[in-house]
TrEMBL record:
Protein name: EF hand domain-containing protein
A molecular function GO annotation: calcium ion binding
Domain called EF-hand: residue spans: 36-64, 99-134
First and last residue of the signal peptide: 1-21
Length: 139
């Protein structure tokens, strides 16, 4: 299960932020990327992302990738960039919605440094910085 944790944790950061900043100019500006995160996830408009908002957004992203609606992302549905930079890889290159969902809280808590259940400006900037670091580590 450890290999899934590494893979899913990396995938969540990359997927959440990497798909939001489509062009390089936006990706280089943390404030702009933070604004895009808020646009996609902050459903109540309070300028913060709660765990519930994060979880719901990530489950929507999973469902959008799951073309055959079987609750599993297989090699054809699983973005190759999710594997870049992961220290361990799933041997079957599949991830279930259950495995994916099981890692959401740990990933959220990693960035919720003050433990208030909300990702705020500085925490969102750290989230964006983690994504940038992962992308820069790609071969």
């Amino acid at each position: 299960m450890a290999y899934r944790s590494v893979l899913v944790g990396f995938a969540l950061v990359l997927w959440t932020t990497g798909t939001i900043a489509a062009d390089k100019a936006v990706a280089d500006k943390p404030g702009d990327t933070r604004s895009r995160l808020l646009q996609r996830m902050d459903r109540n408009g309070d300028g913060k992302i709660s765990f519930e908002e994060y979880r719901n957004a990530m489950q929507r992203r999973f469902a959008a990738r799951d073309k055959n609606n079987d609750g599993v992302l297989d090699a054809k549905e699983f973005p190759k960039e999710w594997l870049a930079g992961a220290s361990e890889q799933a041997s079957d290159h599949k991830i279930t919605l259950e495995d994916f969902g099981g890692e959401l809280e740990a990933t959220f808590k990693r960035f919720d440094t003050n433990g208030d259940g909300q990702l705020e400006a500085g925490e969102l900037d750290a989230f964006v910085a983690a994504r940038k670091a992962q992308e820069e580590s790609k071969p």
